[in-house]
Amino acid sequence: MGDSSPQPSWQVEFFTTASGRSPVLDFINSLPTRERGEVRNSLRLLREFGTRLGFPDARHLQGKLWELRPGHHRLLYFAQVGHRFVILHAFRKQSGSTPRQDLDLALRRMSELA
Questions:
Q1: What span, in angstroms and rounded, lies between the C-alpha atoms of 68 and 54?
Q2: Is the Cα torsion angle 104, 60, 71, 12 positive or negative in sign?
Q3: Range of the domain at 86
Q4: What is the DSSP letter of 7?
Q5: Using CA atoms, how far apart are residues 96 and 45, in angstroms rounded to an integer?
Q6: Which of 20, 48, 55, 96 is most buried, with most CB under 10 Å away?
Q7: For residue 47, which of 90, 4, 8, 7 has the smallest C-alpha distance?
Q8: How many domains does the chain have?
Q9: Mean pLDDT score, 40-50
Q10: Could you report the per-residue pLDDT of 93-106, keeping only the tens digit for each?
């Protein structure tokens, strides 16, 4: 028999600009190795548990918008039909609540895809 561990059932995609750039991947790739590992682990959890992933790993923000919470970073995302998540925006957490400009940017990007 083969490996019996559950396979991730969700796909994770990253917002891409019209020019083909991914600001989220640029942000993740700029992080120090340990922090990049925290983000990758959170993305793995999101792929594995999907919409069942809850606090403290993920938190609902508003409407369809959620945040993934790896360490001192936040990745804002939403779920699409077909077991897909789209990571819209990423930033370093510096205050207790999600800054309005980061929230607005994620909402604007989500509206481009919906």
A1: 9
A2: negative
A3: 11-113
A4: P
A5: 23
A6: 48
A7: 8
A8: 1
A9: 96
A10: 988 889 999 999 99
Is 5 part of any domain? no
Coil, strand or helix at 80: strand
Instruction: Please state, as a whole number, how many other Cβ atoms lie within 10 Å of the Cβ of residue 88.
Output: 24
Q: Note if the pTM is more than 0.85.
A: yes
Residues 6+ apart with CB under 8 A from 6: 48
Q: What is the CATH number of the domain that holds 93?
A: 3.30.2310.20
Cβ atoms of 87 and 27 within 8 Å: the answer is: no
Q: How confident is the model at residue 1 (pLDDT cuts 50, 70, 90)?
A: very low
Q: What is the largest CA-CA distance in the chain?
A: 51
DSSP 3-state percent helix, strand, coil across the chain (nearest 5): 35, 25, 35
Tokens matching residue 51:
């919409």
Question: What gap in Å lies between CA 52 and CA 45, rounded to an integer?
Answer: 10
Using an 8 Å Cβ cutoff, are 12 and 79 in contact? no
- Helix or strand holding residue 76 (H, E): strand 73-80
